[in-house]
Amino acid sequence: MDNKFPDQLYPHLYLDGPPEEEAKHNYGGWGSYERVRTVGAGPCDAEQPWSPPVFEPQHDVNSEEWLPVKPAVAPLMPPYEDAKVPSIDLPDPMNFPDHMHYFYQHYFMDAFSTMGHLLQDDFTFQRKAPKDVLSMRWSRDFINGLKYKRCEYANFSKKIRRMHHLLRDIVSDVPPSLLSSLLYEELTTQRERLQFSAENTGGTLGFVPLRDNQSSRVASLIYPRGVGMDKVFFHKVVQHFNDDKPPSFVLQPQPSVFYLKGSIRQISPGKMEEEGHVAVRSDYLCGVWVLGSRTKPRLVEVIETKDPFSCVTGSPHMPNEFVVVNERGAAYLWTVRRGLQKFREESSNLYFNAKSSWRWCEFSSHPRVMVYADRTGAELTDIRCHENTHTLFRIGKTPGCVSGERVIIAKYLSKSHAHHHLINTQYSTYIMDERVPSVPMLKWNHMMEAPPTFACDLPGQTPSQTCKLLLGSQRTQEIMLLQYTGGREHACQTQGPIQRLFNPKECLSHLNLQLPHKKHIAQKRLNVPVSGQDTFTTSWMVLDAIA
Q1: Cα 7-11-12 angle, rounded to 5 deg
Q2: What is the 3-state secondary structure (H, E, C) of 379-425?
Q3: Which end of the chain is more exposed for a tag (fewer CB within 10 A), N or C?
Q4: How distant, in Å, are the alpha carbons of 333, 350, 481 from that of 391?
Q5: What is the Cα–Cα distance from 527 to 519, expressed in whole angstroms?
């Protein structure tokens, strides 16, 4: 247990609320010294000469030495033949005239069916029309004339203009003005949803170790598949270690497949011992499976809700406990085979109205103290006493926040430090210590193009090594590596600048393509927004949305 705390932290000028002025020569957080402290300075004895103070920055440019090796790009699964690659282009809300034209041309029965049935006895396209029926031969000639390059509108302008003024408001089932406004609103919503999807926060990929030895490791790769991303696969992987070669992976031929009634949104493994539980979340269902090194995965329990789930998190303390929260703001402690225990419910956002139904829950260093977060901040909640809550992070009150900042994802860094929590916003990354709420131990400007929706940590193998954090975005496929030390006897300190790692589409040059003429197909596939990432001791992996 990491109960020790640094004797001295880096000094900082703490302001209450967002800063009103921005510092000059500060590009993405770089170019400013920020916090520094003196090391080994002070008055000395008379027998020893006075030594000048030595300043140590909190953001150190030195880091671990990284040696280039041969990339270990190992596709674990063959391409899924029936997968549909969605378009990577974002819809433009201003293109609604083209969409309306497509709708009128290809779905004319939906657009004009009502008025068509009302006027079918009074209009005809036949050559010989009855006495009381209006012939539409001129309209047919006008439509046929559009195939030629002459100016047909000039020849039929009078009749077309009269018919347009007569029927423009009634010929369509939905008035064009209303249809255009609704279509523009829908295209805008689709663009925002594709740019950032809160439903997939947390990631749909898991790599759970089952058995380790000196030369190999047996693990279970958990991932979604299918056109609707509604099938969860449990695939055993054997990872071999070689001193002079990159690690190699061997998959067992047949995975275990389970079907869920809905798209898979998140995969969260719990504490692993001889057996471990893994939770899988869809919109209205959450299921728990038991994994073992010698047994096949088996479904243990499923819960259902009327309100969409937004989070499920496995406990790092107990092997059969999870915490779930829905978009209505109700949070539950889920003990497998024992049911749900509600410990908190919020009808609105914590600190101000962020107009978001996203909620998140994580565990803390104590198995009965939970982190409850939304877009405005995060609070520590002791479920043994409903009134015992403390602010861990708050937009506008935590030093370093900027105007318009929102919480994107929160994660308990149980592997790196018992009291540290990661808070990601669309601008920055914070390391919070639950023993000192609202005071960031570290703060980075991650400088990512899209908000980081996935996060995982890798602790150092030795005390001299750094703790590593991987941040991943969904649509842009960015992967950032952050490194830091401290939090126990010494204050937290970053090691080196933020490093950008290869994303899936940039790894195409390292793949051995057997059919060069299919390279564009692989490139299109690898450009699809990712659905999750995971890390383990020797390498990392990213899974695309249609794997």
Answers
A1: 145
A2: EEEECCCCCCEEEEEECCCCCCCCCCCCEEEEEECCCCCCCEEEEEE
A3: N
A4: 20, 10, 28
A5: 12
Taken in order of first residue, the domains within the chain and their CATH numbers are 93-193 (no CATH), 196-544 (2.130.10.10)
Going by C-beta distance under 8 Å and a sequence separation of 6 or more, which residues neighbour residue 312? 266, 268, 279, 280, 281, 286, 322, 323, 324, 334
Distance CA 254, CA 344 (A): 42
Q: Which residue has the tokens 């899936």?
A: 504
The region that residue 42 occupies, defined by phi over 0 for left and psi between -120 and 50 for alpha, beta otherwise, is left
Residue type, 28: G
d(CA 192, CA 92) in angstroms, rounded, equals: 11
Characterize 87-113 residue by residue with b for buried, 16 or more Cβ atoms within 10 angstroms of its Cβ, and e for exposed: eeeebebeebeebbeebeeeeeeebee
- Sign of CA pseudo-dihedral 112, 118, 119, 121: positive
Residue 11, pLDDT score: 80
Q: How far apart are CA 397 and CA 391, in angstroms?
A: 10
Structure-token match 């809550």, residue found = 389
State which amino acid sits at residue 199.
E
Beta-bridged to residue 454, according to DSSP, are: 472
Nearest to 522 by CA among 508, 512, 533: 508
- pTM, full prediction: 0.81
* Beta bridge pairs of residue 286: 281, 303
Q: What is the pLDDT of residues 215-274, one digit of tens each?
A: 778 888 898 888 788 899 998 888 887 777 767 778 888 888 999 888 899 999 988 777
Could you give phi then psi for residue 35, rounded to 5 degrees?
Answer: -90, 140
Query: Between 18 and 136, whose confidence is greater?
Result: 136
Q: Is the dihedral of CA 28, 427, 414, 473 positive or negative?
A: negative
HSE, side-chain direction, 13 A CA sphere, residue 19: 9
3-state secondary structure (DSSP) of residue 463: coil
Placement of tokens 């046929």 in the chain: 144
Calculate mean pLDDT across residues 510-526.
Answer: 73
Look up tokens 């974002």; give the residue: 90
The whole-number pLDDT of residue 81 equals 57
**Per-residue pLDDT tens over the stretch 345-394:** 998 999 999 888 999 999 999 999 999 999 999 999 999 887 788 999 99
Interval 301-350: pLDDT, tens: 999 989 999 999 999 998 889 999 999 999 999 999 899 999 999 989 99
Residues near 462 by Cβ (< 8 Å), separated by ≥ 6?
none
Local structure of residue 27 (DSSP, 8 states): B
- Are 494 and 484 within 8 A, CB to CB? yes
What does the DSSP 8-state code read for residue 505?
A: G
Number of Cβ within a 10 Å radius of residue 37: 16
- At residue 288, does pLDDT exceed 80? yes
Over residues 457-478, mean pLDDT = 86
